[in-house]
Amino acid sequence: MPNLANNSLAKNKKEQTQLAQVKVVSARLQAIWWLSAVIKDGRSVNDLLSVSNLTLDKQASGSHSKNDSPLARQSQNNSQLAFAKHILFGSLRYFHQIKAILEQLLDKPLKQKDTDIFCILISGIYQLKYLSVPDHAAISESVDLAKSVNKKWASGLINAVLRGYQRKNKEIGERLSKADTFLYSHPNWIINQLKMDWPNNYKKILTANNERAPMAIRINTNLTNKLSYQKLLEEQGINSQQHSIAKDALILDQPCDVYSLPGFTQGQSTVQDVAPQLVVELLDLKPGFKVLDGCAAPGGKTTHILQREPNTLLTSVEKSASRLERVTEVLSRFNMLDNSYKVKLLNVDFLDYQDWWNGEFFDRILIDVPCSASGVIRRNPDIKIHRKKTDMESLVKIQREILNSAWQMLKPGGKLVYATCSVFKVENEDQINQFFENNRAKLLDMPLEAHQELKDKSVTDFGYQIFPGQMQMDGFYFCGLEKLLSSSDQS
Ligand SMILES: C[S@@+](CC[C@H](N)C(=O)[O-])C[C@H]1O[C@@H](n2cnc3c(N)ncnc32)[C@H](O)[C@@H]1O
User: Is the Cβ atom of 296 under 6 angstroms away from ligand 1?
Assistant: First the structure.
């Protein structure tokens, strides 16, 4: 296995020193480090794999395993790194299924302190079941990993369990054939919630969640246009498709390293799924409008608002200081921090609006509220491990509070868009349904063509609910509300 610690790819001295500290690391071992960090330390895949400079700097000074950052600094085109990521994502996608298999193969559960061994077994079975690598390689490399994590005692166990799987996989599959967690590889609470919310669609959603999402980008139409950019991509050997309803979107035929996107560092494009790109259409922006982006980080919609209407007087609010830095970062990449753009960034809690709001009503408000992220599991399979049923009550409460607070700051006749990347009704149409019980508002439609396409497939009376994979989009919900001026306005 080649050495993954390739100093020539280090960007600066600090990184070179860190890379030098890394011993020879195999792709499989890297995958185990990442997997353990997700399972044991509760780290998110996004966080672990982020290649943004900001995150790299944080990783350099962070408290997690000292070995997980240097690899992230290498080009994503490195095939070994790609293999490590492949194992990581696959092991997480099929985590619940493989865990059920392991319960059949182990006499007793492994101890918490042996999570690394558990991860080696998860990734070993993932390779045997889903990858075309030769079985003997998957087994012997997994056995060798015991030594790499200084637990030579576990070699025999790993060997026995993986060989046991080879022998008994059919029998185990039959035994578990009625267990939903095994069939859909999701925790039971998510399966049950989806069954309840979407009895006709839940199987499709669960299946889509285990698939790979396409890489979608947004073209910065202030600097270029979609057709010219598509040509530029083509010249780089990157083929893409336009989307039928998202004006600024291109979907790449194959994912690629962001830095190979033409003009990426100059803000000509950014990575953003298609569904969140639709929000800006519903906002119906006009020059000089006062707009509030209520939950702004990492800044995807903040930059889209300014791109669509550069003469916006924008206030972007974000509670997390470190996440707000990411908004600054993306604004800077888009060259939107200069004086020609009027954007105010506030590191405050949205709910404390009485402290930070100057009392001038906003014409438009976007609240892309914190949510379960159940619509983006295919991009972030670690959500299936991290998100708990018990999180839901507090999430729903904060969403409701953000919506009610935002409404106070919206001028009569103004428009608000509520959005989540969730497919759970309780965070979406139920919230809006309840909102209508106490407030007077009119539902907003998307521009005609998009409205037609979305409503044809629509499953909800309030707003637009998109399921993962639908029209190549992530699971997403958004709903536009106009604040009525008087009772006769109500439709
Ligand atoms: C779904 S993300 C927003 C994504 C963003 N709109 C974009 O397009 O890039 C939700 C954000 O809300 C922030 N947030 C959560 N609670 C908040 C609060 N009470 N006040 C302000 N921001 C909050 C989170 O830190 C997170 O960055």
Answer: yes
